[in-house]
Amino acid sequence: MSSTTDTVNVRPDFAKCDGLLPVIAQDAATGDVLMMAYMNEEAYDETLATHRAVYFSRSRQKLWRKGEESGNVQEVVAVYIDCDRDTLLLKVNQIGGSACHTGYPSCFYREITPTGIVVHGTKVFDPEKVYKK
Amino acid sequence: MSSTTDTVNVRPDFAKCDGLLPVIAQDAATGDVLMMAYMNEEAYDETLATHRAVYFSRSRQKLWRKGEESGNVQEVVAVYIDCDRDTLLLKVNQIGGSACHTGYPSCFYREITPTGIVVHGTKVFDPEKVYKK
Hints:
Two copies of one chain form a homodimer.
Chain A: E1 3-6, E2 21-27, E3 33-39, H1 41-50, E4 54-57, E5 62-65, E6 74-81, E7 88-94, E8 110-113, E9 116-120, H2 127-130
Parallel strand pairs in A: 2-7
Antiparallel strand pairs in A: 2-3, 4-5, 6-7, 8-9
């Protein structure tokens, strides 16, 4: 695939979506889509500075340094921005082999089919042991 | 990868996010993430029934049958749902080779790097010719 460089920089448009932009995390090695979460501007800037995925937790209303509890951090290999500058795509190395709090490698472990769901993959950790009460 | 089937069906939780759930479209052949858009329940049901991606346009506030103007429809190969049932992942055959209104194959054609953006790929169509005024 061809690529061209441009010294113009492009920033996400945090004026949209109440300052919380959707972010897709994709496994840099396999291409599997791992999860979707949100970033505010602070999370975005910390992600770029540290090369570790930092999201904003809508339920907890604070920065969510992915893997801070489970150890399953995401090393950010590349950051892409979409045409409208309101969605981001991260290519990551998923440490620990799982992005999902359920223990499955990807949050998208269930396929919806006409005859029921198909579960893809197997749990790589037991959530009850990883997330201590 | 192992997979197991379950006759239990799972539906997206349209009670969340004001009934508009984010949907990631991924090229079924290459694994490239093509775009992100939204579905309401009507768009979701039509997508499953027709095997063509139908979104809900937030700007136009109506169903958006992807490709109805450009011809670049998305044939839906598989539908995945995330752990929280509030995000969907479609694996699609992107007819025409482009998902993006800019003419690039993917909406995520720009990589953000410390020295500027890198544009990946080349336009497969000219938007001014495809989207007639």
